[in-house]
Amino acid sequence: MKIVIAGAGEMGSHLATMLSGNGHDITVIDRDAKALEEVGTLADIITVEGDSTTFEALRKASTRKCDLFIAVNHTENDNIVAAVIAKQLGARKTIARIDNNEYLEPNNKEIFIEMGIDYLFYPEKVAAAEVVDLLGHTSTTEYVDFSGGRLSLSVFKLEPTSPLVGRELAGFSDSDAELSYRTVAITRDGRTIIPHAEERFEEGDTIYVIARQDAVREVNDLSGQSHIEVKNLMILGGSRIGVQVASELQNEVNIKLIDYNAEKAYRLAELLDKTLIINVDGRNTEAMLEEGLPNMDAFLAVTGRSETNILAALLARRMGVKKVIAEVENLNYINLAESMGIDTIVNKKLITASNIFRFTMSSDVQAIKYLTGSEAEVMEFIAKPNSPATRSRIKEMGLPENVIIGGIVRGDKVEIAVGSTEIKAFDRVVVFALPDAVERVCDFFN
C-alpha cells in the first residue's frame, strides 16, 4: 500500500516507522528538513520537504497515487486542509488528526466526509476515554471493550495473593467449552507469550483475559487486587487529556487539577466549574503533600513531559495512592516505568497507531489495539463468507503458532473460543497475535 503522511513530528515519525516495517511504501511531508532527516534514519521512507497544505508538496509526494493519506501535523487546520486537497488530487482514503470535540458530532462528521475526509481522529479524546474506563476498573492496567462491550479485554498483573498463581490455564481442550473468560496472552520477563496447553500462571505475570460481559467482575477479582471506588482524584497537568477526564468525571468525583502555569489555571477554572484548579508546581513534593496527595484514591499524571509524569506517579505510589496512571509518550520509557511500579500507562502514539493501522489491512477489521508494554496486538475481524476461518473448527484451521482466537460474537450470542468452536460468516471474532503473524491472520478472514 502506498501511504503519504503529512507531518514528521513524534506521531508522524512513529506511524512512518511502524507502517514501513509492515512493508508499505511510505512518503512523509514536512516543512522541517531536520525532522525529515531524523525520521529518514528510523525507517526506509521517501521524504518531501514542503508545506502539506500546498498543491506543490502534495503533487511532489505523488498523493494522487496513494491508497491512504494521513495528516498528523501539529496544527488541526493544516490537517483538514491537507486531507481535503489530497482527496481532490486522487488519494483513495484520507485521515486527519483533530483536537476539537465539535468536529466529532455526528452531523458535523458528515460535513467532513462530504468535503473528502474519510476519518477524523482525536488522540487525546480517545486517551481520556481509556483513562475513564480504567478508573472504573481499577484492578486492571488496561481495559478494552469489543462488539459494543459484549466482549471485554482485562489486563492485570498477578499479585502474590492472586488465586491464579501456579494454576494451569484453561481453554485448550473440548471439555473447556462454555468458558466465560480465557487468558489469551501473557507478558513475562519482558517477552510476550501467546499461551498454549500446559502453560501455568506465575507471580508477576501480566495477563490478558478476554471475557463475556457477565464475567468481567469475576475476572478482575482474580488479579489479587481489590477494586477501588474512586471518589477523590488528583490530575497533574491541564493538558487536553486532563481536561477531558475532568470534564467527564467532575459531576461524580471530587477532582483536584494541578497546573504550574497561572494563566492556564485561571482558564481551566472558568472551563471546569466543578473541578478544583490549583496553581502549584507538581514537582514540588511538599506542595503535593499539602494538597492532599496521600488522601487520593487515584492519581493521573498527564503533563507534556514523560519524565515529570513518571516521577510524579512514583511519588503518588509512595504516598499510598492505590491507582496511579501516567502518560508516557517516550516509548523507550514504558518498560522502565512499569518496572518501577507504575502499572498503568497511557501513550497517544500507540492509541493513534491502533486507530490508523486497521485502515492498512486487507481484511474487514473493526478494531485493532496495540497493547501497552506488550508485543501483542488484539484485533476484531468480521469473518467474510467462504473465508478459510469459516471452513473448519478452530483447532483444524492451521493458525500460526503466535495466534489465538479469544471470543466470537454472533448476533446476541457471545462465545469464548475453544478448539472445537466453529466460526460462521459475519461473526465478529477477537484475535490476539504477535506482529510477525498479523498479516497471515488477515488471510483467514478474507
TrEMBL record:
Residues 141-225, 365-446 form the RCK C-terminal domain. It comes from the Bacteria. Residues 1-121, 230-346 form the RCK N-terminal domain. GO terms for cellular component: plasma membrane. This is Trk system potassium uptake protein TrkA. NCBIfam families: PRK09496.1-2, PRK09496.2-6, PRK09496.3-2. GO terms for molecular function: potassium ion transmembrane transporter activity. PANTHER family: POTASSIUM CHANNEL PROTEIN 2-RELATED-RELATED, TRK SYSTEM POTASSIUM UPTAKE PROTEIN TRKA. Keywords: Ion transport, NAD, Potassium, Potassium transport, Transport. InterPro entries: K_uptake_TrkA (IPR006036), NAD(P)-bd_dom_sf (IPR036291), RCK_C (IPR006037), RCK_C_sf (IPR036721), RCK_N (IPR003148), Trk_Ktr_HKT_K-transport (IPR050721).
